[in-house]
Amino acid sequence: MIYLRLIWSYLKIGLFGFGGGYAMLSLIEREIVGPGWITEQMFTDIVAISQMTPGPIGINSATYIGYVAPGEYSEAFSSPIFGILGSLVCTLAVVIPSFLLVAYTSHLIHRHKDSVVVRGIFAGLRPVVVGLIASAAMLLMNSANFGDTTYQVVWSIVLCTASFALVYWAKWHPILIICLAGVAGWLIY
Predict the structure, then answer these.
(1) How far is 24 from 176, CA to CA, in rounded Å?
(2) Which of 37, 41, 85, 91 is the 20 to 30 Å CA partner of 109?
(3) How far apart, in Å, do the first and last CA atoms of the chain sit?
């Protein structure tokens, strides 16, 4: 059944997804797009929506994928009730492993925070998390995000660069940039 497979996939994502939502993206893509529950285009759209909505990207994407995947899996599960059940299942499955792991290890880490072993573990995790985030960036550099034609790719790069510059140097509000990028995308594409 689709729900058991979603639970298993999101338990793995929640347990092995170190470094936050962006570091989880490649694992989410492999677990969810790989079996065909959603398309690569839908995954790209889910990532974009998850970035714009409040909350962690991993939980937001789990909620949305849980809602969409049952209907994509079978027409029999296209009712909103099945989508809501999928959202609850995926959200809980991605949160529970991290919650239990943090609850179990927080007192140990706090008690041994000055230990050479604990500091070494965290020092070793930092470059791994950076690599996972870089992997997520590479994963999202696809035709669904940048387009199929040279025209679309060039405009995508221009919009990306302009957005970064306006937020970083001109200090424009990110929500304004999101709205302007949406209008620009509608006009260009």
Answers:
(1) 27
(2) 91
(3) 39
